[in-house]
Structure formats: structure tokens, C-alpha cells
Amino acid sequence: MFGEKVLDLVGELKRARPGTIPPYNEDLTRQVIEEMRVLFEENLTDVSEAASEKEKATPKPELYPSIHLRHVCLERNQRGLLLYNYNRLVKLRDLRWELGSILPDEFRLSLSEQEVQWFQRYNRSLANYMRSVGGGVLDLTEYTQPPKTLHIEVRCLEDYGDLETDNGTVVQLKKGRHYYLLRSQCEQLIRQGILEHIQ
Amino acid sequence: MKILDQEIVSEFYEKLRHQHVLVLAAWDVDSVCACKILQYLFKSDNIAYTLIPVSDIRDLQKALIDHSGQSSKVVLINCGGGVNIHELIESDERNQFFIIDSYRPLEIDNIYSPEQVNVVIDESEHLKFPEYDEIYASDMDSDDEGEGPSNEEFYYEGEEEEEEDEGPDTKRRRLAESFQKRRKKVVWKKNRQQVLLEYNGLSYHGTAASILMYQLALKMSRDSNEVLWWSIIGLTEQYLYEKISSDSYTEKVHTLRPDVLRLNRNDQDTASSINRLRLTLENELPAVLYRHWSLYDSLSHSQYISCWFKTWSMRGHKKFLEFLADMGLPLSQSKQPYSAMDASIQENVKDWITSSALKFGMDNITYSSFVSHIGYKHHFSAADMVYCVSAFLENNVEPSFLSAIDVLSKGNVKKIFEGIELAKQQQKAIIQQARSFTEKHRVGCAGSFMYFYVEENTPNCSWFVSPITLKRLAYYLRETWNTTNRKAKDLP
């Protein structure tokens, strides 16, 4: 039946675990395109037949339903393919924000060639944009949410020693203590695993 | 210097602004609650702080020394009131201490110290401090004191020699003067001792730190249901662990009641108002965690009831069952979890218990308290929360001040249940230990003190490492002792 393969293709993408990209199914894509080509050619002949016979004044209305059916199948396949490709790109874009500009190998291998190219171009435009705003030092991927408060509550997970803050006070970071500090000063330490952010 | 609660905003809070504040908190429920309120206030004012839990005076000293050069403002919650801060550390001139301590008596040196050490006091307590002149000598006297009597004599003798030619009259006058002076000083010294003895003689607890913090929030118009709830928990802890008498507890509850009513007016019950924290005033049974336990367990594990019936003995246990029967409560129902009991029983059980208790000779066993409701499902009384928080503080595996703070955060229901389970274990351990002591007659009596040993390697001993649990065990044993030995009624 028409349209089943494209459903498989979309289903495959949907079944993938969140945060991963399944390998690009080139084989199945090609089969879908082949199916579409066949449908299109059949429609073409039928349409030309129906159109050409108009002049002989014996129209063939019995051809219309099959033309219509094929056309709907074609449109459905097209929609499925677009869906497949678009959603892969959305996933890829999310990965860029999560993992940064260099993709790990396991993702890179499951991309098609065009997708790799798209990824590079996306990287480039993002970098250009980030350079143009915030004086060129702002990493947008780190601050995806606008901060609600200037300070955050943190807990110290291991002894660190003295931390000198911007306004000159020295804070001693020790295990098992609770602090309320400027967000900007903590972020580095949170990423190092010394501080823990309390929501 | 004292800061009265009237001027707590201007003298205490305003001085903390724009600085990194060091908060030192003692290891008890009241200070957890006070911290929570202070954190809430600091958060809304963007005041950076460091919070360090301290469990004893050595901890306190160490923390102060570690941070002496760093934060100039130090807030001490429920600690440091009873010790002379200046003696504890050689503090920097820039450091300023604020003490909020429910422990009384407060060290007199802290009260009369200049700007550097400030003690926040609730005026309604009517604390009486000795007059400054009674404790500290004026300049002239203190000079003499420093030099000691022998020096003094020498000084006068030297003077005499010098001024020999002045004639006997002047000499006699001078001698008389110096005698008078010395007599005055002896009297003053005696008086000082007397006054200090009277002042320091008894130790007790005053207004809870969390109540003071609530007043602070109230004065700044930042009070909310959460803040009020935290201060109620702090207050309830003082009552449950017998830090304050039931009279002063009732008095405090009465002052908080209007606030509860004000913040919990019966507005239109919209979905959003259901899911927020709501507080109601209710009478509480002296039963431990009964909302989350079976009624049978809860009653038999509570101090008052179990001591009254002496449930550790066979006869006492029978009497306890009789008590349950008198209420008209089937045993099968009372052994169910409270929430699974029949709804009709749940509604009436409080009245039944009170009336049966009257019959059995216990008078007025309920006390007024508050209950918080979150959504339709969760109801926690202030007492439940106290047991829950202190279970985290006193956990025998891994005591943690910070997880005790987390429990109080909004919407942390899962953690509350975790704490309640821990609290049940704790309560069971206390009761078991006490029972085994009473059965083996391990409680000794020495004059006006009683003593007992908790042996190492007994199954429950790990619980009694922490002071609050140990204290609760002691209170329980005292209660059992009081009920079993008639002679001992007049002992403390």
C-alpha cells in the first residue's frame, strides 16, 4: 500500500529516545522517493490521457478517482518526508545548544552529509550572532533562561578554600555550608561540582 | 547592647544590608525555622550570606575564628547568648555581632558591651537585668580593684609619709575616708555577687528565635503564611521539648492567632487557593504523629499517655486497652493507619479521647496548635513538623542541618514523609530504651538528681548520641519516675 514506508520512517524517528538522533535512513528515504516517482508517472499518463480524450468528446470520468488517490498519496509522502527531515534538524539544533559546537562521534555518524553541512552553517550563524550582541563575550548557550535573581542559593560539596568576590569580601567555602552568593561567581564552581545549586 | 523588638528593623536588619553576612545557627528546630525566615528575608533583599550550623561551643569558636577576617556582620541564632563573645574570640574592631538566643540567662557582658555585640530581646518577656553600676565599678573603683588591696595599702602609707607634716587631724580624716571607701567596696562586691547569683541562678528559655524573626518580617510587611508557619513550628518545638511552660506557650499562641486568621481568611475557594499553604487553628492531642501513624501506636508512644497508664507493665497495658474500649474505638480500627480509619471515627476521635481522658482522671490533655493544609490531601500539624525536622537533625545515620532546612521548603511533601518515618523510628527508640531502663531499674537517684547510663553497643544507642534525643529520653524517664514513685513527686 502507498504511504506505509513513509510512516515507518516517521515512526522510527518518533521511537528514538529523547536527546538522541537515529541514523539517517537513506535506504528507506530513497524507497519513498521511488514510490513517489512511480505514482507521479502513473498520474502523468492518466492525466494526459484524460485530457487528450477531451477533444474527442469522450471524457473518461472513471480515471478521476484514481488520479485523485495517487495525488493524495503523493502529498502524504511528501509531508512525511518533510516531517522526517525537519524534526531531525530540530533535534540537531537542540543538540547544538546542549553540547556545544563540536558534536561527539556517535551523533556525527548518524547524520547525513547534508545535515552535517547544515550544522556547520548553523554554527557559523550562531557564532556570528553571539559576536554581535553583548560585546562579544556572551555565550548564549550558557544562559538559556534569563536569571530571575542576582544571587542564588548554593551548598558546598567539598572544601575549596577562600573565594574572593568582586566586591572584595572573601568567602570561605567549606563542605556542608549554605551560601547565598552572586550568580556570576558561582557558575564556574557549580560546573566544577564544588557547589550545588539549590532551587 | 540590647536591641528591643520595637527597633529590630532599624537596629538589626538595616545594619545587615549591603554586606556579606555570616549566620551561625545552633543545631535545633527553632533555629532551623529562624534561619528559614531570615533566608527568606535575605533573599528578597539580595543580601549575600554564609550559613554555618554549629553544634557546640567549640564549633562556634572555630567558625568565628575561621571567618573573623571575612564577614563584618555576624548573626548568631540560638547560640552565643550565654557566653561572653569577647572572651570567645579576639575579634576585630570591624566585626559586629547580633545575638538572637532563646536561652536564658543572657550573659551580662554581652548586654552591656558597647556597639560590637548586640542582643535582640523581646520586650514582652520583661527581662530584668542587673543595673550597670551593680556589676561594673565606676572608674575610680575599678582602678582600685585592679591593683588589689596590698598595693592600695602601700599607696596610702606612702602618702602618709609624704604628708606627715599636715597634722593629725587631716591624717585621721584621710584614714577614715579610705576605710569608708574600702567598706563601700566590700559591700558593693557582696552585692554584685548576690545580684549575679540571682541573675545566673536559673537557666530557662525565653522567646523563640523564630518568633522574633517573624516579628521582624511582620514589621517589614513581609509576613506570609510560610513565614508564620515556620515561626509556629519553632514555637511548638519549645513547647514539645519542654523548653517553655504551657502558660507561656498559650500566651504566644494567642498572640499568633490573629495573624493566622488574618492570613487565612475564607476567600472564594479557587483552585489556586487550595494548592497553597493554609493554616487553621486546632486542638491537638498529646499523641505523637497520630495523623500519620495508627492511633494505637501513636497513643502508646506518646509520653503523657504512656506514662499515665504505665503501659510498660501488664496492668498498665490492660488499662490502656480499657481506655481505648471506653472511647468506643474498635481495636481493629485503632491499629489501622489514621488516614484509613472510618471517616466518622476520624471526625469524632478527638472528642472521644478528651472525654474518656477526663473519665480516667487526666485533665485537659489537648493543647491549641495549628495545622497546615496543602491541597486537599496533605495535613501536617505543627507538632508533626517539629518531630519531622528534629528527626533530620538527629538522624542516627547522617544528621544534617541542611536537609532539615529543605524539609521546610514549600512543596517538599515527599521529604516530610521521609522525616516522619524517621521520627517514628526515633520515638520508638526512645520508648524502648526508657522501658528497658525502667524494667531493669537502671535509673539511679542521687539527691535531687537522677542519673542513668546509656551503654554502648545497645541496639538503640546510636540515637542517643545527639543531645535533643537524649534530652527527650531523660524527660520521658523523669515522667515515668514521677508516676511510678509516689515519693518522688516533689523531685524535679
Name the descriptors:
heterodimer, A: 199 residues, mainly alpha, Methane Monooxygenase Hydroxylase, Chain G, domain 1, 2 domains, two-stranded antiparallel ribbon, 6 helices, 55% helix, 11% strand, B: 492 residues, alpha/beta, Rossmann fold, 3 domains, 6-stranded parallel sheet, 3-stranded antiparallel sheet, 13 strands, 54% helix, globular, disordered C terminus, cell cycle (chain B), single-stranded DNA binding (chain B), CDC45 (chain B)
Description:
The complex is a heterodimer of chains A (199) and B (492). Chain A has 199 residues and is mainly alpha-helical. Chain A has two domains: 4-134, Methane Monooxygenase Hydroxylase, Chain G, domain 1, CATH 1.20.58.1030; 151-197. Chain A has helices at residues 4-15, 26-52, 63-99, 105-108, 113-132, 183-192, and strands at 151-156, 161-164, 170-173, 178-182, 195-197. A three-stranded antiparallel sheet of chain A has the order 4-1-5, covered by helices on one side. A two-stranded antiparallel sheet of chain A has the order 2-3. The longest helix of chain A has 37 residues, at 63-99. The mean pLDDT of chain A is 83. Chain B has helices at 8-13, 29-44, 57-66, 85-88, 108-111, 132-135, 139-162, 168-200, 209-219, 225-240, 246-263, 271-275, 295-300, 303-309, 314-327, 331-334, 343-359, 382-393, 401-408, 413-439, 467-484; strands spanning 2-4, 21-26, 49-54, 73-77, 96-100, 103-104, 117-121, 204-205, 277-284, 367-374, 378-381, 444-446, 449-451. Chain B has three domains: 2-122, Response regulator (Rossmann fold, 3-Layer(aba) Sandwich); 132-199; 277-490, no CATH class. With 492 residues, chain B is of the alpha/beta class. In chain B, helix 2 links the parallel strand 2 and strand 3. The two termini of chain B are 35 Å apart. In chain B, helix 2 (29-44) packs antiparallel against helix 10 (225-240), helix 10 runs antiparallel to helix 11 and helix 18 runs antiparallel to helix 19. Chain B is built from 21 helices and 13 strands. The relative contact order of chain B is 0.09. Residues 139-164 and 488-492 of chain B have low confidence and may be disordered. A six-stranded parallel sheet of chain B has the order 1-7-5-4-2-3, with helices on both faces. A three-stranded antiparallel sheet of chain B has the order 9-10-11. A two-stranded antiparallel sheet of chain B has the order 6-8. The interface between A and B is medium-sized, with 19 and 22 residues.
